[in-house]
Automatic annotation (TrEMBL):
Involved in targeting and insertion of nascent membrane proteins into the cytoplasmic membrane. Binds to the hydrophobic signal sequence of the ribosome-nascent chain (RNC) as it emerges from the ribosomes. The SRP-RNC complex is then targeted to the cytoplasmic membrane where it interacts with the SRP receptor FtsY. It comes from Flammeovirga pectinis. Gene3D superfamilies: P-loop containing nucleotide triphosphate hydrolases (3.40.50.300), Signal recognition particle SRP54, nucleotide-binding domain (1.20.120.140), Signal recognition particle, SRP54 subunit, M-domain (1.10.260.30). Its main location: cytoplasm. It is an enzyme of class 3 (hydrolase). Keywords: Cytoplasm, GTP-binding, Hydrolase, Nucleotide-binding, Ribonucleoprotein, RNA-binding, Signal recognition particle. This is Signal recognition particle protein.
Length: 440
């Protein structure tokens, strides 16, 4: 996710990392690089200018704190700014009412129907009685699609194939839900390829009729600035409650995620990262996203996914070890094995600080970790728990045992050390005086 942006910002920050102190000159050049990175990521021009000005002012205004290097300070400022840009606090999805009603809007192809299916599954897992409603009266295929998603997830789908009036379909669906003990109704509406008046009138009428407790606007993050403009038009008419960003698993540049909040002034509530239904829908936490963009990983989301996919005990154990810097080869191996089961590999790799470097430039598939797994599996229990014990003769034995080379073993150890360093940094970052962690 956002690889180019991450790399560009990383490069910009590298320059200042070697510096002994913050000066106008090094701040100016770093800020310029960051602005360029943001523009290249298709961030709205005005937004990029505003936030880089703010970053500069803040960096120059900081008295250097004891024990805080310019690189660290700057990373923290940028991380805070990106977090702020994306809304600072996580805004939860909290539908209320009996039944609660949710309206889904967006352009055709944005991922609306897929999202509706994923949301249905999520709500069902929370123990809710869910009814999904196919209110796209123009494309019978859209009704079929939602029905298929309903079958796959075991969630009931309401349709009226002969009815061409979305308002009455939505009203009837709510009535049906009341009569059948449903606690939440999610209405998937028709989308067009571009915004047109009739579509806007229609969805406005549906909104008025069912008075949803949450209206969510779904947007394809691959469309960058267009996504932001479409959001603005929809918001003027619908005054929606939150944004759903889809297709963040692709090579999205990041512009939509970074600009939409400031331009539309509505929170991003969910992000979707794949066509699969399981484990591809996450609530949106601005701070975690900022940390991912800065290559600091997103350990918290990873732990949450782990919690979702595996037993709580394991997730709690990992979280504790990460916080205490006790991450060892056992944990790495178990993480790699979990990751392979937990969803889109590329997406998950971005959540573990430094893990992306282990598989860089390789086809990312489940084979990518094979040599790493083989090496770790050749270790004795003592070696796994004590990464520092690996001397030259042990390394040679590992290479032979795993069918790799000593160089591959060395690489793994080096990268593992970098990973641990990165994790320490993430932990430390929350301890900079006056710059406590917010949200997330
Ligand atoms: P709708 O017209 O807005 O209802 O869009 P669909 O839900 O039919 O999605 C359009 C296409 O995008 C389909 O091929 C989906 O499988 C795909 N899609 C939806 N969400 C995601 C996502 O998060 N990631 C990826 N890679 N594809 C997605």
């Amino acid at each position: 996710m956002f690889d180019n942006l991450s790399n560009r910002i990383d490069r910009a920050l590298k320059n200042i990392k070697g510096e002994g102190s913050i000066s106008e000159i090094n701040v100016a050049s770093t800020v310029k690089e960051i602005r360029r990175a943001l523009l290249e990521a298709d961030v709205n021009f005005k937004v990029a200018k505003e936030i880089t000005n703010e970053i500069r002012e803040q960096a120059l205004g900081q008295n250097i704190l004891i024990d805080v290097k310019p690189g660290q300070l700057f990373t923290k400022i940028v991380s805070d700014k990106l977090t702020e840009l994306m809304g600072s606090e996580m805004v939860p999805f909290t539908p209320t009412g009996n039944p609660a009603t949710v309206l889904i809007a967006g352009l055709q192809g944005s991922g609306k129907t897929t999202f509706t299916g994923k949301l249905g599954l999520r709500l069902k897992k929370q123990g809710k009685q869910v009814l999904l409603v196919a209110a796209d009266v123009y494309r019978p295929a859209a009704i079929d699609q939602l029905e298929t998603l309903g079958e796959q997830t075991g969630v009931e789908v309401y349709t009226e194939r002969e009815n061409k009036n979305p308002v009455s379909i939505a009203e009837n669906a709510v009535k049906y839900a009341k009569e059948n003990g449903k606690s939440i109704v999610v209405v998937d509406t028709a989308g067009r390829l571009a915004i047109d008046e009739q579509m806007m009138d229609e969805i406005e009428a549906v909104k008025k009729a069912i008075n949803p407790s949450e209206t969510l606007f779904v947007v394809d993050s691959m469309t960058g600035q267009d996504a932001v403009n479409t959001a603005k038009t929809f918001n003027d008419r619908l005054d929606f409650d939150g944004v759903v960003l889809t297709k963040l698993d692709g090579d999205t540049r990041g512009g939509a995620a970074l600009s939409i909040r400031r331009v539309v002034e509505k929170p991003i509530k969910f992000i979707s990262t794949g066509e699969k239904l399981e484990n591809t829908l996450d609530e949106f936490y601005p701070e975690r996203m900022a940390q991912r963009i800065l290559g600091m990983g997103d350990v918290v989301s990873l732990v949450e996914r782990a919690q979702e996919a595996f037993d709580e005990e394991e997730a709690r154990r990992l979280n504790k070890k990460l916080r205490k810097n006790q991450f060892d080869f056992n944990d790495l191996l178990s993480q790699i094995q979990h990751i392979k089961k937990m969803g889109d590999l590329k997406d998950l790799i971005g959540m573990v600080p430094g893990l992306n470097k282990m598989v860089k430039d390789q086809e990312i598939d489940s084979d990518a970790f094979k040599p790493v797994e083989a090496i770790i599996q050749s270790m004795t229990p003592y070696e796994k728990a004590n990464p520092d014990s690996l001397d030259q003769s042990r390394k040679k034995r590992l290479a032979t045992g795993s069918g790799t080379s000593v160089q591959q073993v060395n690489n793994l150890i080096k990268q593992f050390e970098e990973m641990r360093k990165m994790m320490r940094k993430v932990n430390k970052m929350s301890g900079i005086p006056g710059m406590g962690k917010k949200g997330g």
